[in-house]
Specification:
Layout lengths: L4 H17 L2 E6 L5 H13 L2 E5 L2 H10 L13 E6 L3 H5 L4
Antiparallel strand pairs: 1-3, 2-3
């Protein structure tokens, strides 16, 4: 089912807000991962004040461009998730991987 223009605008705004509040952003290829493992990762990231988001690559690219950050975001081959980290990156990933 297609996403409405209003919903797309909301997604872009949400990504923009997360970019502004994050100290780091990680692009994560989740192709082939099962739901249980993804939910476990979300839970662990949330404990560490990080946010795991999935959005269309075109909307992600638009959000980053709106934030003044340029790059080749839509060039990833598979599905891409974003992890917005609000603390020092090393402190966040310790014990997850």
């Amino acid at each position: 089912m297609p996403i409405t223009k209003q919903k797309k605008e909301h997604i872009v705004k949400d990504i923009n807000d997360n970019i502004k509040s994050a100290k780091s952003v990680v692009f994560l290829n989740f192709h082939g991962e099962n739901i249980a493992k993804t939910n476990e990762l979300r839970k662990e990231l949330k404990k560490r004040d990080a946010i795991y988001k999935v959005a269309r690559k075109t909307l992600t690219k638009k959000a980053f461009e709106n934030s003044g950050i340029k790059g080749d975001y839509a060039d990833y081959e598979n599905e891409v998730a974003l992890v917005f980290i609000k603390i020092v990156f090393v402190n966040c990933i310790g014990g997850i991987f």
